[in-house]
Amino acid sequence: MLKAVLWDMDGTLIQSEPLWAQATFEMSEIIGRRLTPELHLTTIGGTFTHALKVCLDHAGAEWSAETHEHYFEWMHTRMAQLIPHAEITPGVPALLDALASEQVPCFVVTNTARRLADGAIARVGAHRFAGSITGDDVARGKPDPEGYTAAALQLGVRSDECLVFEDSAAGMRAARAAGCCVIDVTKLPTFEGVGVSDLRQWYETMSTVKNFDSLYSELVDRAASRPEGSGTVAALDKGVHALGKKVIEEAGEVWLAAEYQSKEELAEEISQLLYWTQVMMVARGVTPDDVYKYL
């Protein structure tokens, strides 16, 4: 059951991404070399620290705590000048009000620092949100799931009872890793005309479909809680050697299905291979993010 809606801020609630892009390009020029459009794409949705490292590496400049502090202050001064010009995403205020009328709480989760985030949230209407998690409130920003996990905890709901609106790959990875259902707003034509019933329908559809991150979160939970009769727990107790044999067995089944069986049968075998691979990941403490960095 849908119990809360969690919102990314930049590029979702307000159209501030072009302003962040402008400031990031300006910062890279000050550092010594303007970012390429391709390199800039790698900074979208991430932390300021990551963006600064990209700029420094591109310019061949060295990292230091003093450099970080200097450009952190520069960036936030510049964005304080630009944020008041950010456009509120059309249709968002009406949807927020509709959710409030049906007592579905909303919460903001952003990598942006508190002193900038509060102004942007106020522009949308701080009264429309039960609270917010900003970049200052977590040890690890998106793509780490800490922010979304903390938001659900503050609201007193489970992560899998939350629907998230996100526009960046890093944000979507964070939300999925937390166990939330995620809507990619870049694929949503508009918020105008979207109602609470639409959100409930999207949630119900998405909550029945597993993805790589949500399956991993589910397996980690099982490993920690050790429910009686769990096949996952029994498999983990047998150790890595037995799990490795199972992964090899399932890989063979995928090969045979690809050669001789239908598309649906192949898909089923692939799902089993993914499941056992993830059980192995849990056993060894390997996370999806550990895997993604090599893709």
UniProtKB/TrEMBL annotation:
<dbReference type="InterPro" id="IPR023214">
    <property type="entry name" value="HAD_sf"/>
</dbReference>
<dbReference type="InterPro" id="IPR036412">
    <property type="entry name" value="HAD-like_sf"/>
</dbReference>
<keyword id="KW-0547">Nucleotide-binding</keyword>
<dbReference type="InterPro" id="IPR008179">
    <property type="entry name" value="HisE"/>
</dbReference>
<keyword id="KW-0378">Hydrolase</keyword>
<protein>
    <recommendedName>
        <fullName>Phosphoribosyl-ATP pyrophosphatase</fullName>
        <ecNumber>3.6.1.31</ecNumber>
    </recommendedName>
</protein>
<keyword id="KW-0368">Histidine biosynthesis</keyword>
<keyword id="KW-0963">Cytoplasm</keyword>
<dbReference type="InterPro" id="IPR021130">
    <property type="entry name" value="PRib-ATP_PPHydrolase-like"/>
</dbReference>
<dbReference type="GO" id="GO:0004636">
    <property type="term" value="F:phosphoribosyl-ATP diphosphatase activity"/>
</dbReference>
<comment type="pathway">
    <text>Amino-acid biosynthesis; L-histidine biosynthesis; L-histidine from 5-phospho-alpha-D-ribose 1-diphosphate: step 2/9.</text>
</comment>
<dbReference type="GO" id="GO:0000105">
    <property type="term" value="P:L-histidine biosynthetic process"/>
</dbReference>
<dbReference type="GO" id="GO:0005737">
    <property type="term" value="C:cytoplasm"/>
</dbReference>
<keyword id="KW-0067">ATP-binding</keyword>
<dbReference type="Pfam" id="PF00702">
    <property type="entry name" value="Hydrolase"/>
</dbReference>
<dbReference type="GO" id="GO:0005524">
    <property type="term" value="F:ATP binding"/>
</dbReference>
<dbReference type="Pfam" id="PF01503">
    <property type="entry name" value="PRA-PH"/>
</dbReference>
<dbReference type="InterPro" id="IPR023198">
    <property type="entry name" value="PGP-like_dom2"/>
</dbReference>
<comment type="similarity">
    <text>Belongs to the PRA-PH family.</text>
</comment>
<dbReference type="InterPro" id="IPR006439">
    <property type="entry name" value="HAD-SF_hydro_IA"/>
</dbReference>
<keyword id="KW-0028">Amino-acid biosynthesis</keyword>
